[in-house]
Write a structure and sequence with these properties.
heterodimer; A: alpha/beta; TIM Barrel; 5-stranded parallel β-sheet; globular; B: alpha/beta; Rossmann fold; 5 helices
């Protein structure tokens, strides 16, 4: 991009400047630290110049927005056309309670739904199973059967609202319930839009809501890819998630690396199952974290887009440009929220929102200030949503696409994060792919080491967290936190008794038996799960049948 | 005490958030304690069993799902039922301040919420171990 001769001159004059600063300025006014670095351990220079991007080729490395390799964004107009989808992750207690919260959020101008399920639902247990005790309705809504799902979406038009569901191991069951509810509303599957997370590998790595071992899990995932490409074409069949990897303590570069490594594993599994990469590739979506270091985060999003485009094109020979576009949802970093002086979290979330938007996200969840203490109250959620609206309507950063492109620092960081991620991908390939690397605990160990380093930096005072290890104040206990009624568990149990009494148990058993038989073979299980769901078989019953056939995943513990 | 303090770090319930548990486990180990980490999804029965098997001086549990009021006291009571009263029990995670008095009352010796330096937890365990 730059004239060679001029660049040489520049190099010289910059070196001279550095020397002067090092010898004269520093002596009088020392810098705050000996070395500066980003979360990913990238050394940060005093100032960046054209020399740092001397090899940058605009057409090859950036190109125009909406063009390969999509570094600048997946659409040509981005937020000049329409803003990202503002999508708050919500759900707690019963379907009735959560339905009320969804309607409230839609009234407040939210543009998509995002369903949080409780842990028993995520792990495929009914509310009345022993392991569910104490957990029902706590971190999300309890869904035991199609009945609950009908209540959850009551009065919400599924042809108009897109819904994201954070569900992984039992993703097929919840998707089937969603399809069945839509049908009852008179909405055909091909009109449905939304996302299921359906990303089991990161559950093994970082999030923990796995059920089945790797192989049958990968089969369920490819079954969904295949089924949706025919029947639910507007559905995002997976949300390959770096969010939880980052929450578990990874660096920005590790987040990109391990997420894309998982992505590669899914594409390989689907191709191996006989699917065409361009048939399912356009429906793959991603989910990233937006952490505190704004500039590194922006570079991370750009690096992820560029690297995924290359992987799909060069490694998997995708032809459809849509297969190469990394579309992603973002959530601000929950792990940066402090229990101390919780109002300060509003400011953190605002910065993280800015990073996600400057990085070109397709949708965004902003965390609420009180989430280090409890589930958020309605007031806190409204502030979080308003934060997005203020960035969208008032900040001006949405008026042009990828406004930070061409910044010497941003482009240099983008290159370095991509390079670090590629090094990890090589290492993971050597280990035999993501599933093997997880099995050996390699990915988990890398993340844990970063998490431990981060904590030690805080305790040594090398990393300042405002209100936690500096600028503390005496605080009284925060008031007005949201409490989930402990009766929820009882309520769900009663509903199950009623359900089992009123449904046609002969048909339920037949559907479960059919599912069991097919699970032993290699049929696509989606139609059978849909059938069982429609007969009001419970989530626990369906997953129970699959547990019998598939067995359960055994975690590899590394410390 | 002539042997290092033995701590079982456990994740009761279905919650998969183990960053805190693992960071604490490593910090305890670096502080010279012997640490047994159980992994995820432990029932109170399993945790008590591990504590007995491992001859633990302390059981340190972490929950971020909100199930603490149910699961922490259950572990305390199961130990009591087995006639074990010299194991120090501590807990951590996203635990609202309002819930802490009840948990202490139930027999959890200390609760450590987000932002607690690991050194505080380490000192607490050292100073409160019941076995001599």
């Amino acid at each position: 991009m730059f004239d060679k001769e001029k660049l040489e001159q520049l190099k010289k004059s910059h070196e001279e400047w550095e020397n002067t600063v090092n010898t004269k300025v520093i002596a009088k006014r020392p810098e705050r630290k000996k070395e500066f670095e980003t979360s990913s351990g990238i050394k940060v220079k005093r100032a960046y110049t054209p020399v740092d991007v001397e090899n940058l080729d605009y057409g090859r490395d950036l190109s125009n927005p909406g063009d390969y390799p999509y570094t600048r964004g997946v659409q040509p107009t981005m937020y000049r056309g329409k803003f990202w989808t503002m999508r708050q992750y919500a759900g707690f207690a019963t379907a009735e309670e959560s339905n009320k919260r969804y309607k409230y959020l839609l009234e407040q101008g939210q543009t998509g739904l995002s369903v949080a399920f409780d842990l028993p639902t995520q792990i495929g247990y009914d509310s009345d199973q022993a392991l569910s005790e104490g957990e029902v309705g706590k971190v999300g809504v309890a869904i035991d059967s199609l009945k609950d799902m009908e209540i959850l979406f009551d009065g919400i038009p599924l042809d108009k609202v897109s819904t994201s569901m954070t569900i992984n191991a039992p993703a097929s069951v919840l998707l089937a319930m969603y399809i069945a509810v839509a049908e009852k509303q008179g909405v055909a599957p091909n009109q449905l839009s939304g996302t299921i997370q359906n990303d089991i590998l990161k559950e093994y790595i970082a999030r923990g809501t796995y059920i089945f071992p790797v192989e049958p899990s990968m089969r369920l995932i490819t079954n969904i890819f295949e089924y949706c490409s025919e029947s639910v074409p507007k559905w995002n069949t997976i949300s390959i998630s770096g969010y939880h990897i980052r929450e578990a303590g990874s660096t920005a570069a590790q987040e990109v690396a391990f997420t894309l490594a998982d992505g590669i594993a899914y594409v390989e599994a689907a191709v191996k199952a006989g699917l065409d990469v361009d048939e399912f590739g356009p429906r793959l979506s991603f989910f990233f974290n937006s952490h505190n270091e704004i500039l590194e985060e922006v570079a991370k999003f750009r690096a992820a887009r560029r690297l995924w485009a290359k992987i799909m094109k060069d490694r998997f020979n995708a032809k459809d440009p849509r297969s190469m576009m990394l579309r992603f949802h973002t959530q601000t970093a929950g792990c940066t929220l402090t229990a101390q002086q919780p109002d300060n979290n509003v400011v953190r979330v605002a910065m993280q929102t800015l990073a996600a938007v400057l990085g070109g996200t397709q949708s965004l969840h902003t965390n609420s200030r009180d989430e280090a203490l409890a589930l958020p109250t309605e007031d806190s959620v409204r502030i979080a949503l308003r934060t997005q609206q203020i960035v969208a309507y008032e900040s001006g950063v949405t008026e042009t696409v990828d406004p930070l492109a061409g910044s010497y620092y941003i482009e240099s960081l983008t290159d370095q994060i991509e390079q670090k991620a590629m090094n990890y991908l090589d290492k993971i390939d050597e280990l035999g792919g993501a599933a093997k690397a997880i099995d050996r605990g390699y990915i988990q160990k890398e993340i844990q080491d970063s998490a431990y380093k981060y904590q030690k930096e805080i305790e040594a005072g090398d990393r300042i967290v405002v209100g936690v290890n500096k600028f503390q104040v005496e605080e009284s206990a925060p008031k007005g936190l949201l409490k989930v009624d402990p009766k929820v568990g009882e309520l769900q149990k009663q509903k199950l008794v009623e359900l089992r009494r009123t449904r046609d148990n002969v048909k339920v058993n037949a559907a479960l038996e059919a599912l069991k038989n097919s699970a032993k073979g290699d049929d696509n299980l989606m139609p059978l799960i849909l059938q069982a769901v429609k007969e009001y078989a419970t989530l626990g019953e369906i997953c129970g049948v699959l547990r019998e056939v598939f067995g359960e995943y055994q975690q590899s513990i590394v410390l | 005490m002539d042997r290092p303090i033995r701590v079982v770090v456990a994740k009761p319930g279905l919650d998969g958030h183990d960053r805190g548990a693992k960071v604490v486990a490593r910090a305890l180990r670096d502080a010279g304690m012997e640490v047994i980490y159980t992994g995820l999804r432990q029932t109170p029965e399993q945790i008590v069993e591990t504590a007995i098997q491992e001859d633990a001086d302390c059981v340190a549990m972490s929950i971020l799902s909100g199930a603490h009021n149910h699961l922490f006291p259950k572990v305390v009571n199961l130990l009591k039922e087995k006639g074990i009263d010299d194991v120090l029990i501590v807990g951590g995670g996203v635990i609202p301040e309002d819930d802490i008095p009840g948990l202490i009352e139930a027999g959890v010796a200390g609760i450590f919420t987000p932002g607690t330096p690991t050194s505080v937890t380490i000192d607490f365990i050292r100073n409160n171990i019941k076995r001599k």
